[in-house]
Specification:
five-stranded parallel β-sheet, globular, 5 strands, alpha/beta, binds flavin mononucleotide, 220 residues
Amino acid sequence: MKILCISGSPRGEHSNTFRLAEEAVAGITTAEPGVSVEYIHLGSLRMEFCTGCGTCHRKLLFCPLKDDIAPVLHSMREAEAIIFASPVYINHVTAQLKALLDRSSPFIHCQMLTGKYGAALSTSGGGPHAMVLDYLKEYLVSCGVQYVGGVSGPISRFNAMKEEAKTLGVDLAKAVKENTAYPDQLSTIEKQREFFKGVISSRKEEWKGEYEYWKEKGWI
Ligand SMILES: Cc1cc2nc3c(=O)[nH]c(=O)nc-3n(C[C@H](O)[C@H](O)[C@H](O)COP(=O)(O)O)c2cc1C
């Protein structure tokens, strides 16, 4: 079982949200001892912002920006489960995490993470941590990922959240192992696929890379 944990905090190993992610991973390894876990700290990477050039739609996932993002997107495609950890920064995910998500738009157009499972963690000083989880859930489901759950809260609840994160890890491992179906999410994924089928068909000359992917999948 391959687990990828992406931390959006700039505080690296000192991040409390990252420490929650480590608790989730502890839950996973208790349930499934042989898992491989990759941690990525976005704060330590060289990252440019998406320029909206559209190259990644024409030539699937190819980005002319030269930085450290391509291997992260590769790891996201390789993992069976993805955990996002982000503190609340001005009512949202951190800029580091948002910059990564902006660079992954073919994942949404082509539901490229279909079949994977996801979870999210967020901490705040007391502000809208649940909103951050909702946002990350929506992102993951848009990519075709089934979302197992999330843990969030003000940092004053850190100790309680550690236990919740561990339980979330156990649930995530179970979902991957048993291939659990979340019918509501599968229905949302199906509806979005219908929507993007129209979009990709109408732009097939322009977004050749994405159109080819859809054809290979037999979705179009
Ligand atoms: C730039 C910045 C913006 C923040 N914005 C918010 C916010 O909007 N609401 C809130 O409740 N806490 C906010 N915080 C507090 C962090 O969410 C909180 O300290 C969090 O637990 C830090 O997580 P970390 O240790 O994983 O980096 C902000 C902190 C920073 C540095």
